[in-house]
């Protein structure tokens, strides 16, 4: 099925009647007159998972917000089991059994897990007393069901983002929910956690008849769990149909465009696609992995780390080289993020020797690191200081404002020129003059990357640089990072939990495990996904 009025229906599930389900019909939403959704129709039936994909800024989150009552559409209707709904606010949607988990987490880190579970619906024993023990027991039950090993009496903030993300979803399923809307729920998860979440979604739909609308950029995850798939392109439904009848190659082409799709196929890098399908996409068979030249003999490292001990790190030694991308791979808790934090002075260094461009290096804090040419892009874009109310250009030049100051006056034209150059380079889509929060999640990530580049780093440290970014843009970012290394001689260090990304972007690869790295470098072209996993998992 194609066209803006195509409906996602599905095979399997609980065999619902024709009118059953949560249905958005002909939804139009405009911002400042610009259409973001142009007549979108989607149905989520009980017992089914509808997978929603689309490029960054395609309108996926906007559609979710419409269905969750967070925003009102300009045109179109929303109905539940055939009954038309006026979703005047999130509370109305919740009452109708529609729960939403957004990319931005909403739980309160200072409260305990039990308090978060029962936020706004505390259980009481009598008029005045809270049923503390009952709530604690129920919270324990809930976390157990989701396989979360946590202490429900501890503040939530004590736990990593992945745990918080799973807990949000757990809580969302609690409130007599009939329809669950999930906006990229796996971006902070990895490996086993992703599998567990997908498994849960499957059992919640099959056994409890929950209907799920799942936004996910990773097609392998989506195809593993969804009954039907809807591809949004520029606010219109371009593809909709049962997964068995919807070719992944068509979905990629619709989202990423022909050129990126062919590139993905040619390099054989997209393991989310079976190789047979990739072959169909490109003119011939996949060519295998990108060749990587070996480190030249006598090459001098730009970063030399020996015996580094810091919070989360027991013994790290490694070298990174100018003109090359070093991929740092490891499981959660291996110390890969802590390594970057120590390198920019966010965590104290307890022991070890660091050299940067041949000089001893001991970062005191991120601005000290920046002055030494080291710039860090964290994986937490929300924490990492996007200033929501400012436009994209200002956000980009914020750390280097002093460079645009002439006699105390800001040269705004020069600022805009510089920011525009980076935004063009990264294809930032959306209204660049509007507050940056109005950009889609993936485009905000691109703005942050642009900001890192505007600081003209010599050593660029990136933690999960393509989190939440669509498959087309992901390829572009990888190419850009490789170019920054090969053409500008930058040293680029990429931490990623995606093996695919590590192999695609890196020249050299090191693995971390239990806070250790022995510095053994492997050429990316000599590794395979399986081998990389074996090295890291074997060591874990
Ligand atoms: N409050 C707002 N004001 C103005 N424009 C907005 C607002 N919210 C969203 N938009 C615009 O609507 C478009 C769609 O955004 P949306 O967040 O729905 O995309 P998305 O498909 O979820 O993207 P991503 O995969 O990057 O998260 C974007 O161009 C965005 O800039």
From TrEMBL:
CDD domains: ABC_Carb_Monos_I, ABC_Carb_Monos_II. It holds the Pfam family ABC_tran. Keywords: ATP-binding, Nucleotide-binding, Repeat, Transport. Residues 22-259, 298-539 form the ABC transporter domain. One of its GO terms (molecular function) is ATP binding. InterPro entries: AAA+_ATPase, ABC_carbohydrate_import_ATPase, ABC_transporter-like_ATP-bd, ABC_transporter-like_CS, P-loop_NTPase. This is Sugar ABC transporter ATP-binding protein. It comes from Streptosporangium vulgare.
